[in-house]
Each structure stands twice: as C-alpha cells, then as structure tokens.
C-alpha cells in the first residue's frame, strides 16, 4: 500500500519545506527514542521529532494525562479558565526567577513570539524589532519578520522597522581579536552603530534565541546576553528570549538564560513545553503585564488557555522534576559531545562540535574538494538507511550543521547506537 501512500501524498499534500523533500519513510508509530517505519524498520530519533519530544515519544505519563484530560475537559470558550491552566501558570512562575510570573498559554512557537512582540510594541509604544541574521522565530507575520535564516524572499514587504544584527559565531568569526578569536564586543558595537544609523528611535524589542538552533546551533558567548540587554534597554526596548528549543532542561539548566544570569523582560516557550504536543507560553513581569492590560492587550485565540495541552504541560513539569532531567541532560550532553569529539579526531570532515546539554551542533567542512552540504545530505541519507534520523541545516557561508537533540530520557546505549551509526555513515560517505 505504500505505493498509494506516496502517490496520494504527491497528489494531495502541499509541499511546505522549501527546497527540501519529505523524509522517504512512512512512520507508523513512535515510542521512547525510536520511530518505526511501515516496513518494520526502527529509527533512532536524534531530533526528538521537531526538536520537541524531550520526554521521548508517547511517554506513559503524557499518554495517561492526554487520555484522562480528553475524557474530562478538552477545550473551552477562550474566556473561561480551568485548573490545569492556572496550575501550569503558577508552576512555570515557580520555575522562573522574579519577576517572571505572568503567563499566557498558547499553541505554537510562532504564536508565542507573535504575542510577545505585540505586547512589547504596546507596552513601549515603539515598533522596531532587532533579531539575529541567523534567527528563526516562526512563520506568522511578526515572527517571520524577525526571522532571517530563511524564508524572506517572495512574500512581499516585511513590516517596516525590522533589523538584523550579525550572529556571534565563534567557529566562523567575522570580527576577530589579535589571536583570531571572535571579538563579540566589537561586533556588538558595530551592530548597534548600524542600528542607530537606521533606527527612527522606536525600539520595541530585541528577540533572540540563547542558542540559535536553525541558525546552526550557535551558542551566545558568555557575557553577550547581558551586554545585548543593556544596549536594548538603553534604547527603550525590551529583551525577548525565545527558548522554544532551549527551555525546560534541554541545555542542562531549566532555562538557557540561567547560565548568563540575565532575566529577559519577556520569555517565550514552546516546543519543549508540550514535549511534542502543541503548547506554548509567554511569560513576563507583573509590571509589563499591567501596562499591556491597561492599554487593552488583546491576544484572543481559539486555543488560548486550552485545558488539554495545559494538563500535558503540568505532566511535563512533573517528569522533568521527578526524573531530574536537567541534570540528566547535562550529563548525557557531556557524554554525547565526548563521543562526537572522538569521531572528529578520526573524521576530518567534522569541523566543530558545539552546544550545551542535549542541544548539540556538529558542523561539517569541505572534505577533499567535496562541499560540506553535499556530504551532509549524503550522511543524512545513509544514517536513515542504517536506522538513525538526523537533521542537517544548510545555510549560506556555513558547512552543513547537524542539529542533534535526542530526548532527555535517552539511555547511554541509545546515544552509543547513534554515535556508531553516524561513524559508519561518515566513513562510508567520505571514503566513497
Ligand atoms: C527558536 C524557535 N522559535 C520559534 C519557532 C517556531 O515555532 P513553531 O514552528 O511552533 O511556530 C521555532 C521553530 O523551529 C524555533 O526553533
């Protein structure tokens, strides 16, 4: 029947992935760290779905919550409240530093960024938005306006007042110290010199990911976030941190911003919060929330404050806490990075291994005249044949970067299996 599947897919599905193609496998089911294909093959999922399934697939506690909640209270009029929603808001606030205590529960990452940007504009009375030139914040209007890593061409004018600043990339530094290292302070000064020259003096917000994921797993240098916040505040704007992929223990901390001790004005959470279910949150201070409310803040959507996914969010927090998955992500991350660095000693095509906790980037470089993106595509294909799902991001000016983000519940045996398959795939592709 798979023949019909692919011809039906070709006939009836909109292709939404740009120049890429659908993964050529029919996925029938998923459990823990693995997916099973229609022909019975098992695939190790090294991207936790779309970087979301931090508890693995179909975690028993999540399954039980969905079954119970769907049978008792699924969805409501958007102006009605229920216990899972208020519980999740309180528990998120308890997991965060002061003054982040006011929560709006939504559905997707783009939507949470849309709401955060809308709130920042209303509260500051300004409209300009700064983000990184390698950013990804989502596909809706304001989120896409602040997204530069791809997808800008051909959709008409972006909103006026969006500005890109260079991404501080330590592996491929543009501003360098005398030793050739990234000079992020000079880069940041330059960024704001350019911004000031173009700005009409109306900065609403700067929105950034603490580790750019779609931008190639680029961790901000320690100190950068604080310096960025100070520059944004000096111009009257708010700092929005998009922790779609980094929030909820993945980097070894509950939130990636904890490493820097920088509390954002607005925090957005999504992918990892629902661990694969569509749940997102905007979190801010009582002061910002009050001003927004006084000015009539409106973000009334069909699925705002939905009890079903809020209950899942509570279960995700339960599992993260009881299983100490922050510590586990840090330990497994060190283990996996060590294994990947060992591969790098034997495979010159691996240019860099980076990241924090279980959000790891492995950047390929040109190998004996063969371009990195071609090698990346071939390694991805071979991994799939061998039973490992990998995702490679290909951006201009970079080699292919594998984004490796296994579930935080993975075992070391599962990570070893991934390392083994990757080793074999790279060996075969680079000696072919
Ligand atoms: C950092 C970041 N923000 C926002 C988004 C958008 O989330 P969604 O696709 O759920 O709208 C993504 C998605 O990849 C992301 O990586």
UniProtKB/TrEMBL annotation:
Database matches in InterPro entries: Aminotrans_3 (IPR005814), Aminotrans_3_PPA_site (IPR049704), PyrdxlP-dep_Trfase (IPR015424), PyrdxlP-dep_Trfase_major (IPR015421), PyrdxlP-dep_Trfase_small (IPR015422)
Signal peptide range: none
Native organism taxonomy: Bacteria, Bacillati, Actinomycetota, Actinomycetes, Micromonosporales
Domain of life, per lineage: Bacteria
Annotated keywords: Pyridoxal phosphate, Pyruvate
Record-stated family: Belongs to the class-III pyridoxal-phosphate-dependent aminotransferase family.
MF GO annotations: pyridoxal phosphate binding; transaminase activity
Name by which UniProt lists this protein: 2,2-dialkylglycine decarboxylase (Pyruvate)
């Amino acid at each position: 029947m798979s023949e019909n599947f692919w011809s039906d897919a070709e006939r009836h599905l909109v292709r939404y992935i740009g120049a890429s193609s659908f993964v050529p496998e029919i996925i029938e089911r998923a459990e823990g760290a693995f997916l099973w294909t229609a022909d019975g093959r098992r695939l190790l999922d090294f991207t936790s779905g779309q970087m979301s399934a931090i508890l693995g697939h179909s975690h028993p506690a999540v399954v039980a919550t969905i079954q119970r909640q769907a049978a008792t209270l699924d969805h409501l009029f958007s102006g009605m409240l229920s216990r899972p929603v208020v519980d999740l808001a309180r528990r998120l606030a308890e997991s965060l530093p002061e003054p982040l205590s006011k929560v709006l529960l939504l559905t997707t990452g783009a939507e949470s960024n849309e709401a955060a940007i809308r709130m920042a504009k209303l509260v500051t009375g300004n409209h300009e938005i700064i983000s990184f030139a390698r950013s990804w914040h989502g596909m809706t209007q304001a989120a896409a306006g602040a997204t530069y890593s791809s997808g800008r061409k051909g959709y008409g004018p972006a909103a006026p007042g969006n500005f890109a600043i260079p991404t501080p990339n330590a592996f491929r530094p543009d501003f360098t110290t005398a030793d050739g290292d990234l000079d992020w302070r000079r880069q940041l000064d330059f960024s704001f010199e350019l911004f000031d020259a173009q700005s009409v003096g109306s900065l609403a917000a700067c929105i950034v990911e603490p580790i750019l994921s779609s931008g190639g797993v680029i961790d901000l240098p320690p100190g950068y976030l604080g310096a960025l916040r100070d520059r944004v505040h000096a111009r009257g704007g708010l700092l929005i941190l998009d922790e779609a992929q980094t929030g909820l223990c993945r980097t070894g901390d509950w939130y990636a911003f904890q490493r820097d001790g920088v509390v954002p004005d607005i925090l957005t959470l999504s992918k990892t919060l629902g661990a694969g279910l569509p749940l997102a949150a905007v979190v801010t201070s009582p002061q910002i929330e009050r001003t927004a409310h006084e000015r009539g803040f409106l973000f009334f959507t069909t699925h705002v404050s939905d009890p079903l996914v809020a209950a899942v969010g509570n279960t995700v927090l339960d599992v993260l806490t009881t299983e100490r998955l922050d510590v586990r992500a840090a330990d497994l991350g060190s283990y996996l990075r060590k294994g990947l660095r060992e591969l790098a000693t034997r495979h010159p095509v691996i240019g860099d291994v980076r990241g924090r906790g279980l959000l790891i980037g492995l950047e390929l470089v040109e190998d004996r005249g063969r371009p990195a993106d071609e090698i990346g595509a071939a390694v991805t294909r071979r991994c799939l044949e061998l039973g490992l799902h990998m995702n490679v991001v290909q951006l201009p000016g970079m080699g292919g970067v594998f984004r490796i983000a296994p579930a935080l519940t993975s075992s070391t045996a599962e990570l070893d299996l991934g390392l083994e398959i990757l080793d074999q795939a790279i060996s075969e592709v680079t000696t072919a």
